[in-house]
Amino acid sequence: MSTVMGLTAELLEELDLRPGHRVLDVGTGAGVTAAVACQVCGDRGWTIPPTSWG
Fold it and tell me: pTM here?
């Protein structure tokens, strides 16, 4: 496991996410953290792509 993936896994464990929790992920990478959080918490949320920020 790469260092980045290890840190991501540790972060997600510390958050202790549960189904139904709300998460705001201000992404700066490949979206792995957001994808895992979505899998754990449920996918009833939405994303705003960077192209619509400006």
Answer: 0.63
